[in-house]
Fold these 3 entries.
Entry 1:
Amino acid sequence: LSMALAISAIQRGQTKKSFNLQIFTIICGLLFLVNKYFEWGGKISHGIYPGSQTLLAEEHGTILFYGLYYVMTGLHGFHVIIGIVLLTVMAVFTHKGIITKEKFIKLENSGLYWHLVDLIWIYLFPLFYLIT
């Protein structure tokens, strides 16, 4: 939502508002990564990671689940990092006046990437956290 609002703001010529919303979006992405760090850290400290003796003692379904869990959430985290870097560049461009009311396509395309990453999380979240 904040990224869509940032794009809308720049289209209306509200550069400062767009910049602030971009920074807010970046902070949300960083908070997501911090959350994943603690989540993965907790699992790893309990010996739940691919190839661990604890996990190898489990049923094949559990081993497969955690293998997919680490690959999918890791790939998603990687794409979030790419998005954060991209949005940081866009925030700098906005601050320097490169992104303007007339020239906002780079910001819009970056927003599309960010929303794609977000949409993928909407599918991953129930797959790994809600299905028992």
Note: The two ends are 29 Å apart (CA to CA).
Entry 2:
Amino acid sequence: MKTRRTMTTAAGLLSAAVLLWGVGIAPAAARGTDDLVPEVEAAEVDTDGDGLSDADEAAMGLDPNDADTDGDGIADGAEIELGLDPHNPDTDGDGIADGLEAEPNDAPGVEDGNHSQRGRGPGR
């Protein structure tokens, strides 16, 4: 008898699932979603964790799997925020990688810390 009762219960549950599915109330697994995992828009995915979405990196010609595309020691997202070029490890062309110098956007040939060469004194 126990086997028959189990089969009857399973058949009843299956019937209930089919009925609910028929009226548009499908279980999460059948809908292809997991209610415990938030849905993330594809445009928001940041595979390498550099602060730029994969879609933005692709649009800029950057590598969405490499946080520092140009290898200068500064993540691509930070370079964009700082006004640097994430394609160029030496944005200002002074021969020092952006990640190694104090002011990566100073004029070419200007030593870091020597602002008077650019007409700016210390503190200005």
Note: The chain has a mean pLDDT of 73.
Entry 3:
Amino acid sequence: MKKTAAGAEPLLVAAPPSGRVHSGPVVGFKGLGADVCAILRLSGPLKEQYAQEHGLDFQRLMDASTYKEAYRSDMICWGEEKRQADPGFFCRKIVEGVCQPVWLVSDTRRVSDIQWFQEAYGAVTQTVRVVATEESRQQRGWVFTPGVDDAESECGLDNFRTFDWVIENHGDEQHLEEQLEHLIEFIRSRL
């Protein structure tokens, strides 16, 4: 089993949003503290590598701007090609040098991502699915974009059925907090 940069076995929480996450579930993990929990994003190294290869502004690809949207479709195709050649390419990049004992991979979106972490880190990997109704997503400003929101990058885990945890994020903040507290209690019990 692989170790963290500090030599410990990480407790990995893969939280696949599949386009259904709101910042609340990720914020809940910040209560563990930055010294305990690293929030990792697969999209970071993907966008950085894409920007380098295409002469683009990496920082602007990281925000929710029209700049990013102009390249999003091509970036998705490019990322899929990279993953087909090497399914763990982006996964390996995000864990390099991470010392914290808990890793929250906040944008896991493909079965191959989950499989890579499960193979690399075994039973310490906990998979978390964050779900929300289409109505609650629309209330948060989401608008369906054909060719993007129905691509594997957004719904590649829709048929994955073996999540360890399912968190409902339909707009009821109290219910969301209760679910997150159960998950965080579980994580603390494993530290």
Note: Residues 110 and 156 are 5 Å apart (CA to CA).
